[in-house]
Amino acid sequence: TTNNGPLALACPTLTELAEHNKVLLRFSGTVGGGTPILEFAKKCLSGDKINEMHGILNGTTNYILTEMAEKRVTFKKALDLAQKLGYAETDPSMDINGIDAACKVVIIGNWIFNKKFTLKDVKVNGIKNITLKELNNATKKGNRIKLIGSINGKPTVAPKEIRRNDPLCVSGVLNAVTFISEYAGKQTIIGRGAGGVETAGAILRDLLDIKYNLANRMLF
């Protein structure tokens, strides 16, 4: 599935139910769309201990903040443009209030960190109250304000200032996630977080993973 709602609400229950029924549940498209964020952490960093995660997990809010910072337009104008381009829903509240990013933090926490997080555990602040003055002040310091989802002990979603040369400082609708692990250190993955083709690619990726796992079961 690419629907992050059910997994954000009941990830442990759904994964346990899949195991009980001896079926495979895959949901890589729920975080990062076509960008294999969950696979990167689960497979490429397997055997390592991931201590922290910080990421831009919502392309809509990243687009809005990019437009405000680079073109000095108001929040409303940036949101209107995002809606015209199809980056934001008619009702953008899930995005701008940080709920969508929080859902993805919950999924990462459960699947990668083995934490039984729910949405209630995530301290969430959206971007509605970010002003042009705050963005301009950040720019003068060589920084950008981004909506960052983090797992560093407690899960959070909040606007934060980061350096412009930080790998997480991506523009437009891009997503970026940095995992900090015991042995590999900081590892960042960047890519488009939404789109029809990207989502279809994620579904295909999951189907192939299920196919390979089922083939291995038959061998053993």
> How large is the radius of gyration?
18 Å
Distance, first to last CA: 27 Å
Strand order across the largest sheet: 2-4-3-1-5-6
| Class by alpha and beta content | alpha+beta
The total of beta strands comes to: 6
Give the amount of beta strand, in percent: 15-25%
**Helix share, percent:** 40-55%
Shape category: globular
Largest sheet descriptor:
6 strands, mixed
Number of helices: 8
CATH class: Alpha Beta
The CATH superfamily is known as Dihydrodipicolinate Reductase, domain 2
Low-confidence stretches: none
What would you call the quaternary organization? single chain
**CATH fold-level name:** Dihydrodipicolinate Reductase, domain 2
- Average pLDDT over all residues: 94
CATH architecture: 2-Layer Sandwich
- One letter per element, helices H and strands E, the order comes to HHEHHHHEHEEEEH
Structure summary:
This protein is of the alpha+beta class and 220 residues long.
